[in-house]
Structures are given as structure tokens and as C-alpha cells.
Amino acid sequence: MNCGEDRLTVVVVSYNTRALLLDCLASIVDCDPGLEIVVVDNNSSDGSADAVLQSFPQAMLIQNQRNAGFGRACNQAIAATTSPLILLLNSDARLNSQALSALCDCLSSDRRCGAAGCTIVDAAGVVTPNTWHFLNPVNQALELIGIRPASQLLSRTHRLALDHARQDKSIDWIDGACLMLRRAALEDVGLFDERFFMYSEDEDLCFRLKQRGWSVCFTGGGSVIHCGGASAAQDRIESLARYYSSQMEFLRKNRSAVSEWFYTWAMRCVLIAKKLFGKQSSMAGFTASADEMLAAFNRAAHRDKSPL
Questions:
Q1: What is the spatial distance between Cα 299 and Cα 84, in angstroms, rounded to a whole number?
Q2: If both were cysteines, with which of 77, 114, 234, 261 could 38 make a disulfide (CB 3.0 to 4.6 Å apart)?
Q3: What phi and psi values does residue 96 have, to the nearest 5 degrees?
């Protein structure tokens, strides 16, 4: 399939989500049987790779001998293809032609749009946030306790402001669950930073895109169903710990060690308060108790001690 004059490849990373993966691939084929599809299987033990070979022989399959993480697996697929546009789609997501066309239109309408996402809904049809401001030491902690400041400096969630084309080109970053990328932009800023095993690799990539003058865009012209956290749910505490560890790494890399220290302090205070009051929270596709979130955060902080 072409997006305007550009060819498109769809990349799906798989880890023990066999049934959802097959649904995902079927949805891609339903959009256009001629789409180039690359599946990277991170050493699944549930027969995912064999199922792809049997049901979707037209897809390129890359089989890793270990779980290489999301960013590294995406890099493998991008390096194995030449299409000017790449659509990253989670294995627990389902694509449709309306969303695909809207994403293509978004990138075709602005040659400086380096990445684009669309509306994400869960299995019940409820819209889930996927547009964000870059992490700083306090914005996530503030939102966890229910404070949503008007200031962009203190807000984690980006409030959409759609133009006449139902697009917003002022986004900091968009979740990688459904993210269309321009190869020329990747050649300018580099691929995913593989030090991020899982989580924050999409935020870090968008950070580098923005630094180099590329736009990160959102289109409201279509929506994709994303069940959310299917691979992560296999070990929720460890996945949450990786989520927090990746955020600490993002701050160390793109802000400073001081920023990481303040983030750690602010988040620990908020999570302790939530534990005392028995509050449940949602984050990164998880719904977890305060005990679980605090345990995961402490595990991450123990691994990633600040130099301070």
C-alpha cells in the first residue's frame, strides 16, 4: 500500500500474545492485503511464530532467540525494510482502514511530520489517553494525585487542540502502540535507543525528533482498538518496575541526574500517600493497587540509584 507517493510497512512486535497477534495481523490484511508486514517475535513460548508462518506466510518473520525488548525489535524490522513510512502497531491492537488513511493523510500533508498517532480506544470503546508532554520531575506525580495544571510545564497529559483538518501538530510525544514514522526522520535522529528495554523508548525518540525540528502529530480522523498491556500483564510488578526504570533512564539521559532525583522523591511521596489511603491507580495500561505500584517503584529505584 502507498501513503500518497510513499510505500508503507507495518511492524508488529510479538511476545506471548498468540491469539491477539493473529487478530492484529488479520486486521492489517483486511485494510489492504498488499501491505508489507514484518513481525518480530521475541522468543515467545506460546507458538506465536509458528502461527504467523502458518496463517500469514506473506509476512516477513524475524525470530529472536531471546526477548530483545520492544525498541530493539522495532529497530530490527526497520533495518530489514526500505519503505519511506513505517507503522508500529502493538500485537494487542487492531487496525482499520479509516485510521490507516488518517495517519497517511497526516504525514502526507506535512513533510516535516516525523511521527503521527491517532485516537486509541480500549476493547469497550473507551478513549484512552495517548498524547503527552515530556516527563519532568513533577508532572507525573501531580497527575497521580489528581492535579492537572493548566500549565504545559506541569502537565503530563497533552490536551488536544485539533485544527480544521482534525490534526494537532503540537504534541510532545505519542504512545508507540500505534505510531507511524517517517524513515527520513529516523535517518536524521537515529532509531530507538536500545538501552530502553520496554517503555519510554517512544518518548525518547519523539524527544530527539522535536530537538531536530520534526513535528509529532495527532490525527482525530480515525481510531485503533488497543487491548493494552497484554505482554506486560504476564508479570505486572516487573513490568511496572521496568516502566519506572525507563522513566528514570529518560530523565538521566535527557534532563539531568538532579531531575531524576526529584522525580524519584516526588513519585515515592505520592505512592506512599496513595498506599496510606488505599487508592488504586491506572498507569501505562495497568490498573494496580497502591501497594503494587509502590513495590514496583522501589524495585526500580533500587536498580537505578541516582548518582546523587
A1: 40
A2: 77
A3: -140, 160
Would you list the DSSP string of 148-211?
--SSTTT-SBPPP---TTSEEEEESEE-TTEEEEEHHHHHHH-S--TT-SSSSHHHHHHHHHHH
CB–CB of 287/280 below 8 Å?
yes
Alpha-carbon torsion (146, 152, 157, 158), positive or negative: positive
How far apart, in whole angstroms, are the C-alpha atoms of residue 105 and residue 8?
13
pTM (two decimals): 0.93
Of 12, 11, 33, give the one whose Cα is nearest residue 21: 12
Considering only the top CATH level, what class is 2-226?
A: alpha beta
**Amino acid letter for position 234:** Q
**Dihedrals φ, ψ of 178, to 5°?**
-150, 100
Q: What does the H/E/C string look like for 206-268?
A: HHHHHHCCCEEEEEEEEEEEECCCCCHHHHHHHHHHHHHHHHHHHHHHHCCHHHHHHHHHHHH
Phi/psi at 176 (5° precision): -80, 5
Question: Where are the chain's structural domains?
Answer: 2-226, 232-303
The DSSP symbol for 137 reads T
Distance CA 162, CA 170 (A): 10
